[in-house]
């Protein structure tokens, strides 16, 4: 390995500290097994005549009778009407149990690609199974762009919109807010073209639908002309960034930051519109940094004080990257290291206080090493959008795919809820109907509309039945 941020974290300062480590304490920690009980990277073994499915991280699995990949809407309608239970799947990047079914899983990935675009109006129609990165590239070829992106670009449009996936930007809304219309195949096989004009209620419900209203085959989006961004990354103390966070979020188009547990330091990122010749991405060592933080935990996690001291002496300080490129090359990245995640969206006025409490809670556990991600998103008006009552600060915590995450629920979720948090629909949470009705003024409206469209509960599974507070007979 070259001299990367991983090497820097465990450089001379780390080696010097290692000399002073008491042998018994170090040996005891070094023998610790961080793996969670029952972890396996393998798919479940399906019964004869069935198939296996797993989400990206492996914590959601099922053995449906069939995974259908329809090519036409007629194929899709036939599959839906013939099945007792149906769940749609995108890229499998949701950590909650939105997809698992023991009957039929529908993969809409063949409904993909740019169908039409109009540079004059900014409207573009795209297959709902299109991955975000593909959508951005094809729109760019047409001179158009998505108005924002999340940090992971392998999700499908349907999966990201249906779970209220967001990017960051105090004046930028979540992705689904730019949906002008969609086409959906419902439980009886009917295909409906939906807009705010044609069916205001279904439009308000369908932009964030959790896949509970039907299978969406295409979207019409309001786009903007193609644009480039300038990226700046710097490392500073957590206290300094918290003092400046609200001001930075107002000064920059996109602002976010990542806290490195047990270090006292933060990597802050801004993106702003840029005109001129682009440089391309000048640095891409995120995975090395993550590996370095894990090594630091593995070697010195037994002593939070020592861990913080080593990080303070080894982490780079100040600006570590300045680059410019097309927006879709900078805002979203690949995530080769798998994890499980909880993310709550906190009313902006409570966000920093919640973050301080979350950091304190996490650092009560010595085994944490994944960065805490913090973003801000503007308000929209979809019925089940977590952002429909005002701007919110999103706080995301992660655990390595093979390590325990039960403390998300026992330690972190109560903190998020005490600050008025709403969970990301695709990230781990334990909320059900009672809590969600209290959090969402239109939740009952959504339930009534769902029951009208799908009276037999064809699109239900155990997770959705829990969310909606309805009986479920598999």
Could you name the CATH homologous superfamily of the domain at 228-423? FAD-linked oxidases, C-terminal domain
H/I helix tally: 16
Architecture (CATH level 2) name of the domain at 228-423: 3-Layer(aba) Sandwich
Mean model confidence by pLDDT: 93
Q: Main beta sheet: strand number and arrangement?
A: 8 strands, antiparallel
Q: Which blocks of ≥5 consecutive residues have pLDDT under 50?
A: 1-8, 11-19
Strands, count: 20
Distance between the termini: 51 Å
Query: For this structure, what is the CATH class of the domain at 228-423?
Result: Alpha Beta
Principal-axis shape equals globular
Q: What is the CATH topology of the domain at 228-423?
A: Vanillyl-alcohol Oxidase, Chain A, domain 3
Broad structural category = alpha+beta
Name the strands of the widest sheet in spatial order: 16-13-15-14-18-19-17-20
The proportion of residues in beta strands is 15-25%
Helix content: 25-40%
Radius of gyration: 23 Å
